[in-house]
Specification:
six-stranded antiparallel beta sheet, 13 helices, alpha+beta
């Protein structure tokens, strides 16, 4: 009898096979999906390429092959106008199609990609003989994109007269290109010559010259992402952004403006522009060292083809030059921020250095400014004709990168007093910068203007001992003011605040009247909010409690400040007369306080030990709700002992006029306060020895002589004459005065050393 296999066994045997079949189906489905994905990538052309990089449209580059590329040129009598037009598509970047100058009229050369299309907004260009851009700015040279395989139909976008952007390349060539802004994608790119002025081109390239076209390329933009972390410096390079470098002239070309020779003179001074957007930090564009007269200004540009930089970003260029602080050099530069070709904001002369607070690599300096007027997608470094004509005298100028920087808001929230300095503990991570537009000198040609510019970073660093010196050597006078301005782009101070600067004069400022040439101003989003000065009686002057506000600044530093009534994100100090401060004012930092800096404005403070008595004298310039003063002494400047109290002389604790105070203590009284307490301690110890039950009475009696000797030595030291008093053993070496409000709030004057006479 034939054995019948149970159905359960059949199912069991069939399951593995079914499972294997299912796995094969899934695997094949995955492969099919990958295949279709590959087809999509191939059909999308450069969408499979790394974005934001110029990709050559030639064989063996990315998705391009000899099978999907076709190069062709215009023909005359059946012959190509360009010799070796096929070189445009081969895999040798050194090969070029060529044409003589006389054959240019009406000629064109193009490359067609049949494997896909390039998306709208892509930037396309051709690498050509250097000098052709100078002529193209006069018109007659165009780049056109098409969505058809051949012919004159299917135009997507074409460059207008003077719209081609250029960049000098390594090897003595240059690149001209434009952004295809048409409504559709494209597959074909053509370089054409129509109506070009051959005499102009001959004057640039020379008689008998030929034009070489080495190839075409395309950049597919993808908006870059700015760093998520704040207080970060970012390079606008092609590794992360659709950044295109170019150069050109700011003047009007043709029509009575700049001639082609002028343009050529400008562009020939600027070399290797492509390096500005390179991700390599060591390569650079440079101004050639040649004394050739140049008519008109030139510029280097870094433009984002997609996306933009928000307002309140710092923007600039990293530059290296041994004469960077030369006034002539600085006056020959300006930086512009543009948005889609429209100027947003610019800064010129040495004010761009006044705001240069971004640290560069060794030997480099970042020139730039805070862009507050709106978002931007292009930065230009504009070079004057005088600068371009003085290459030898100024030396080589290297331009490495375009950079931007954002700023942090404080986290956690700010405390009572904030020092506006990057890295200072009180700022809680808040980003701070110098506003170059409100800083520097009123006249950029004054003597030693580079001194203030080169030290500007001292104003906002975390080292409290660093400062910017405003001195008479800068030429500061009634008609030539100097200003320092600090801004917090990511934070606005609201409600009533006290704001000002930590300063030190050549001699301590005892009277606010000496600051008659000083003004403090606040701004919000670049607009003036309010000003304080001696003239409007808003400006205040106080001694500085050094330890509580800013660390180790000089002991005789002071604060000049006023009480604000409006919101602000910038505070500015302007000096137009240094006569009252000994011809120098050292400015350490700006600060903002949610409370009054000091309810009492101290004047001079002195402490003199003479003839066995310590005499302390001080004055107040103003008092508000003041109750009393507590005089404190210290032997080391760290531990303080109360020496006495003096009540306020002000009527009701309030005064706007100067009041003199004094306090004195004899040596014996000081010793009692600081040293005689030892006697009391010894007596207490002795009594404890006698009375404490756990100590044997015999042991206590044995220690009594020791206690008596210690007491005698201490008492004898108190009876010494002041002439035999050892200075090194003085009980009080420092004095400070605590001011106590009616509500019990205490603030301190600066600490001073006791003078012995």
């Amino acid at each position: 009898m034939k054995k019948i296999t149970p159905i359960k066994s059949v199912v069991r045997k069939a399951l593995p096979a079914t499972s294997q079949l299912a796995r094969k189906i899934v695997t094949n489905a995955q492969r099919l999906a990958l295949f279709f994905a590959f087809l999509v990538l191939v059909s999308s052309g450069l969408s499979a390429q790394t974005p934001n990089l110029h990709v050559p449209i030639r064989d063996a580059s990315g998705p391009f092959t000899a099978a999907n590329l076709t190069a062709r040129s215009s023909t005359t009598l059946g012959f190509d106008d360009f010799s070796n037009a096929g070189f445009l598509e081969d895999n040798n970047a050194g090969n070029a199609a060529t044409i003589g100058l006389t054959g240019l009229l009406g000629a064109w050369i193009e490359i067609d990609y049949s494997g896909g299309t390039f998306p709208q907004g892509s930037e396309v260009g051709f690498t050509i003989t250097k000098g052709l851009l100078s002529a193209s700015l006069l018109g007659g040279i165009n780049i056109t994109t098409y969505n058809t395989a051949s012919g004159e139909s299917g135009v997507v976008s074409t460059s207008g007269a003077g719209q081609l952007a250029g960049a000098s390349l390594l090897g003595g060539t240059e690149r001209i290109g434009f952004v295809s802004t048409g409504a559709s994608s494209f597959r074909r790119v053509r370089l054409s010559f129509s109506g070009i002025n051959l005499s102009v081109l001959t004057s640039i390239l020379g008689a008998g010259a030929t034009i070489s076209v080495y190839g075409a390329d395309v950049l597919v933009p993808q908006a870059g992402t700015l760093p998520g972390t704040c207080n970060t410096i970012t390079q606008l390079n092609q590794a992360a952004f659709p950044a295109v470098a170019s150069y050109g002239t700011t003047g009007v070309v043709g029509g009575g403006g700049l001639a082609a020779a002028d343009v050529a003179g400008i562009l020939n001074r600027i070399q290797n522009v492509e390096n500005i957007t390179s991700s390599t930090t060591t390569d650079y564009a440079n101004l050639s060292a040649a004394n050739v007269t140049v008519a008109g200004d030139g510029y280097l540009s870094v433009k984002l083809l997609s996306g933009s930089i928000p307002a309140n970003y710092y923007a600039g260029f990293e530059i290296e030059n041994n004469n960077l602080l030369n006034v002539d050099l600085l006056n020959g530069m300006r930086i512009e921020a543009l948005n889609n070709g429209t100027l947003v904001q610019s800064m010129s002369a040495f004010q761009i250095l006044s705001a240069s607070v971004l640290s560069g690599s060794s030997g480099r300096q970042t020139l730039g400014f805070l862009v507050t007027n709106g978002p931007f997608n292009e930065l230009r470094l504009v070079l004057s004709s005088g600068l371009l004509s003085a290459g030898v005298s100024l030396g080589e100028i290297r331009i490495y990168n375009a950079v931007v920087r954002n700023f942090c808001s404080p986290s956690p929230a700010l405390g009572a007093t904030t020092i506006l300095a990057n890295g200072h503990a009180s700022a809680n991570g808040m980003g701070v910068t110098v506003n170059g537009g409100n800083s520097g000198l009123a006249n950029g040609t004054v003597l030693n203007s580079q001194t203030i510019a080169s030290a500007m970073n001292n104003l906002i660093d975390s080292d409290p001992a660093n400062y910017v010196s405003l001195s008479s050597t800068l030429g500061i006078s009634a008609g030539n003011a100097a200003s320092l301005s600090v801004t917090t782009p990511a934070h606005t101070f609201v409600n009533d605040e006290y704001t000002g600067f930590v300063v030190k004069a050549a001699s301590p400022l005892a009277n606010v009247g000496l600051l008659s040439g000083v003004t403090i101003s606040t701004y919000l989003d670049g607009a003036l909010v309010e000003q304080s000065s001696v003239a409007n009686s808003l400006l205040k002057l106080n001694a500085l409690n050094v330890l509580s506000i800013n660390g180790s600044v000089p002991a005789d530093a002071q604060v000049v400040y006023f009480k604000t009534t409006g919101d602000f994100d910038e505070v500015r100090l302007t000096v137009n007369d240094l006569a009252g401060v000994g011809n120098e004012l050292q400015v350490y930092s700006a600060f903002v306080s949610a409370e009054a800096v000091l309810p009492v404005s101290f004047g001079d403070i002195s402490a003199v030990y003479q003839n066995g008595t310590l005499n302390i004298n001080w004055s107040t310039l103003s008092e508000t709700n003041n109750r009393e003063f507590v005089i404190e002494g210290s032997s080391d400047g760290k531990s303080w002992t109360k020496l006495g109290t003096v009540a306020s002389k002000a009527n009701g604790g309030n005064s706007d006029s100067a009041i003199e105070y004094s306090f004195s203590k004899s040596l014996q009284e000081l010793l009692v306060l600081s040293g005689f307490s030892l006697v009391s301690m010894i007596i207490v110890m002795g009594m404890a020895l006698l009375l404490f039950p756990s100590i044997k009475r015999k042991t206590a009696y044995m220690l009594t002589p020791v206690i008596a000797i210690a007491m005698a030595v201490t008492l004898f030291s108190c009876s010494k004459s002041d002439h035999s008093y050892d200075v090194d053993e003085k009980p009080v070496a420092f004095i400070r005065i605590a001011q106590v409000d009616k509500d019990g709030t205490t603030s301190y004057s600066k600490a001073i050393k006791v003078v012995h006479k």
